[in-house]
Write a structure and sequence with these properties.
This protein is an alpha+beta fold. It has four helices and eleven strands; from the N terminus they run αααββββββαβββββ. The chain has helices spanning about 1-10, 20-25, 25-35, 125-135, and strands at about 40-50, 55-65, 70-75, 85, 90-95, 105-110, 140-150, 150-160, 170-180, 185-190, 195-205. The protein has an eleven-stranded antiparallel β-sheet, covered by helices on one side. Helix 3 packs antiparallel against helix 4. The two termini are about 20 Å apart.
């Protein structure tokens, strides 16, 4: 519940970043300002996850509208064709892929059918939530020049987590943000020396004109 409340604050456009984190990592403040200036966004997420000896590769289509509307669809990989809609609270309207895509069920946000291999929910993958974590998870946060990724100049935030056991065993997480747009374009997470998450953001579009009818619940 505490994590959901933190998300609501982000989606309301308020600053969720501690003053010390914002001072140490101005890229967070720059993102917060950029996010405050938009009403909605869509993007494609390419996500690789690992959990022990298991791995999962997916391509997600994400749509978000303030204050709390989210829709996702798995375009490729495990669970292709499955998707869900969340409009706040602890439940979502989800469907499987293939011939069962027409059957919609309202299930718990943390239902095994609604999360990724590492238990990431539809809300935890939101880009504002990703950046919020860097300002709120206890640990050592640093910002340096990230160089170019795909021809884009970036800032790099690196968080060495104080207590990995309280952070899904993630000991270090890194995110690259565009210096031009201030939005994240890639995130990598480690559990010790193992990469447990590697995700890239493609085709990000903001203020595309989404309405509540785009989020059937």
């Amino acid at each position: 519940m505490k994590r959901l409340l933190a998300l609501f604050v982000v989606l309301a456009g308020a600053s969720c970043v501690a003053a010390s984190a914002a001072t140490d990592a101005p890229a967070i403040a720059a993102f917060d300002q950029a996010f405050a200036g938009i009403y909605d966004y869509t993007c494609i997420l390419h996500v690789h996850e690992a959990n022990g000896t298991q791995s999962q590769d997916r391509v997600y289509q994400y749509s978000f509208m303030k204050e709390h509307y989210v829709k996702t669809l798995i375009l490729d990989g495990d669970g292709k064709g499955s998707g869900g809609v969340w409009v706040g609270g602890d439940r979502l309207n989800g469907h499987l892929g293939g011939i069962l895509s027409g059957i919609h069920l309202k299930i718990d946000l943390h239902d095994p059918r609604a999360v990724s291999l590492r238990g990431v929910t539809i809300t935890e993958a939101l880009l504002p939530r990703v950046i919020d974590d860097y300002g709120t998870i206890p640990g050592k946060l640093t910002q340096i020049d990230g160089g170019k990724l795909g021809g884009v100049e970036t800032d790099r935030l690196e968080l060495t987590v104080a207590d990995p056991a309280s952070n899904h065993d993630v000991s270090e997480q890194i995110v690259y943000l565009s210096k031009q747009t201030h939005w994240p374009i890639r995130q990598i997470m480690y559990s010790g020396s193992q990469i447990v998450l590697d995700e890239s953001v493609d085709d990000l579009k903001t203020n595309v004109g989404l309405t509540q009818s785009d989020f059937p619940f």
